[in-house]
Amino acid sequence: MRTIQEIQTLFPSCATTGLSSEEVNLSRSTFGKNLLTPILTESIWLKFLGKFDDAIIRILLVAAILSFFIELFQANSSSYAFAGLALLALIVLSGFFITALRPLIPASLAFFSFPLFFLGMAAGHPSYEGLAVMIAVILATGVAFLSEWKSSKEFEKLNSAKEQIQAKTFRSGSVKKLSMEELVVGDHILLEMGDELPADGRILTSENLSIDQSLLTGESEPVEKHLISANQFTDGTENPSCLFRGTQVIEGSASFLITEVGDDSMIGQIARKLGTSDDHQNNQNERLLKRFSSHQETTPLQEKLSVLANKISMGGYIAATMIFLAMLARGIFFVTPAEVFIPNTMPELLQITHALVGYFLYMVIIIVVAVPEGLPMSVTISLALAMQKMTRAKSLVRQLVACETIGSATVICSDKTGTMTQNKMTACRVITKNSILEKTDPNWTNLTSKNIESPKTPIEWLAFNAAVNSTAHLEEKEGKLVSVGNSTEGALLLWLKENKKDYAAIRANSTIKHKGLFSPERKTMSTTINHGLEEITLVKGAPEIIIASCKSMMQQDGTIQNLDAIDLGNIRQAMEQAASQAMRVLGFAIKQKTTDSDDALTLCGFICIQDPLRPEVRNAIADCKSAGIQVIMITGDNPITANAIGVEAGLAIEGKTELITSDMLAQMTDEQVKEHLPKLTILARAKPLDKYRIVKLLQEMQHVVAVTGDGTNDAPALKKADVGLSMGITGTEVAKEASKIVLLDDSFSTIVKAVLWGRALYENIQRFLQFQLTINLSALVIAFLGPFIGVRPPFTVLQLLWINVIMDSFAAIALCSEEPRKGLLHQKPKMRSESIITKTMAWEIVSTAFFFVIAMVALLLGMKNYGWFSGGMAQNTEWEFSPLNAHQVSIFFTTYVVFQVWNIINCRSLSAYESGLKGVFTNPTFLAVMLLILLGQIIIIQAGGSIFKVQPLGLLDWLIILAATSIVIIKAEVFRFFRRIRKIKAHA
Fold first, then answer.
1. Mean per-residue pLDDT for 920-929?
2. How far apart are CA 724 and CA 871, in angstroms?
3. What's the pTM value of the predicted model, to 2 decimals?
4. Does residue 832 surpass a pLDDT of 90?
5. Total number of domains in the chain
6. Which of 415, 611, 690, 710 is catalytic?
7. Which residue, 700, 728, 746, sits at the end of a domain?
8. Which residue in 97, 310, 686, 794 is a FRET match for 276, CA 20 to 30 A apart?
């Protein structure tokens, strides 16, 4: 790492006034830009081909290729058979020698197996089932790949957004906010608590600086950093004066000089090694891979669904095996044993083999239908749709997990400043001995005529203190003066500007010896300067802390007298009045150092600052209460100010507020705090670790906690929370980085909208689950019973694949597009341990599936025994169990599909108190998907022909099916009616 002296040799003023524009260009051309070269990742085509290396996909590939070869052999042409074998050998060899990667062999088989279909077509024996399976494989892998690719792209956007985090930089004598990319070697950077280091460098000055280096070292404890003499330590994370990109300021402040940028930084060097090394097991490498990879956190809902999907899959495997054995047993009993076990000719052998392969293929497709591989996809679709809708509602979702979690929130811990208030702080009252000056007073700008660089009166000392004892700056942005740094200090600087005082000039003319920066623990800030011939310490901070440290008070003429009981009484009365009017009060004092002086301060006065409440906050908090969500305001204000704001926001009731302070919290054990938490509304005089502790204890009580905030000091709690929400306009980049959702309009009411969409997401997935499990259960039972009834498999392979498409794709889009229903916010949040399948859902799934089984089996028996819907006879081989014709198959297949179309409507309702028909015409996406399914079914039946083993139906057939299957709607409404009656009686 370069030394400060080496940098100063090239850029002499870098450590004082900062680089000039010419020096910036020279540094950038010499040392490069502050950009990291992206880690080399697997190419896009390898990622796509890798999706074929899946157990289900491999089974499907085997089944499809067997189907192709059986059809080729049935062509009775040895040339086609040998051509097929040669092609298969070529495929396998290509898989080995072209890719040289075993996981990619399934992909090679998939893409090169299509010529087998065309060989079969040329021989007059195409396998449409095999072709359909291959298309299903391509679609399934394509959807999985596109989903992951899109997720990866979104993550890349977020990573590029991180590069836009701005750093306070000295350039040509002034402080500017620059993005990480704009920084160069030699830049002089200012750091505050919560800042992320934009580059590597060495400390120039520091004050109680602690850095989190866990990204590089893995150590969770922060490390103290300070300036040391050269050669005392080797350069590295253990060197107290070295700072590194990607680490974070936990406490204190500092200024440092950038010595390395981009790939020359430590994190850049490690990242380069990752791109060229296979060693990803190293702990440091794993931490960096996690930071730069597109790995997404798994949501609690996805974990629940994964467990459920595994159970369903196991049931599907068992059912498919039983169906295969049932078909085999039925075939053995139907066909003469000698013809089965002792084939005399090649055609007989091919016939038996063809039947067995057909059964195997049917078993595989049953597995495909039963295994809910579409369930994760439905969750992804739901999350993506919810994310889009939440973004339109001004909530930018940075992590998909937040879409779900915010809907389950039981407690919102909210910062006050910038979240409930507008963060537009203005000085509105000045209090000195026997004087209260209001902003509306004509004398408010009397400071204009005073020389505050040589202060004598209390108000002059207040102004001098505000200018010098500060780290904030003002800069012009879009024609307005805005503060850079602490917003409270910014309000004081704007007050000076109102009085035409140049704070920058006053600050520059003051010789600063020491600066004690504000911390939530100290609640004061001090700056020691040489003022004339004496040394003076300027102090500002919480009024109760300042008053407790003062023994004297400055009079209006500048003289100093002891602080007596009358003065204290008047001060406290003025403080309480200001606090009860929701004003933040800052105390100001000085200490003039003489040889015999003690540590006592002289009180100069107070400045009151007002930050107006956001107009929509009161209604938003009322909505949270009706949604069963507890709101806790966590603020650094004193209890009186905090209570006044709480009452104004509708959070607290005058005289009945459950309020505790940081000091009270510190004296409580965790168990005592937990006793207060259910009723807590305000935490006053809070420190950052207080908010973190509150969040941690709430989570231990099984609450789902959302935390809102806009400041850097909110970052630890934002990260700890189940979902952190930062402010998009006034929020710091550190707060945004720590959050999972960014409120683009900084409106507290947007949180309520996010909660609403989160709850709607959960319900939409429940709707889809109710629909899918009904099909799973009914289709498996019908397929299992078919051979025992004495008919061939009720559904063909292609028909089952179409039913699977309805389940996994169309239904997910239809049911996951539902808008939030009325009354959703009046329900209690979902608890972590609550099952996603409710009793009402379970009843609907079982009862509807049973209804489908009874109806479809009755239809099968009617067709077989009584000739219902009989027409021209279908071509059947002896292995097909019953002479059902193509017309009957078409009726049976269409009846089942249309049943599902009606059932999609039923599944819109999750309770006995709401009809699935309610509002069905208000969702155009839902109606469009229903029509698309019907249109697809019409095309298959009317034009599918021999491919789907169907024949066209007449208009009367379609009308009968539509009318007859609509009974499932009537059944559902009748069942809901009786369940409502039973619930009403139970609660009577």
1. 90
2. 65
3. 0.70
4. no
5. 5
6. 415
7. 746
8. 97
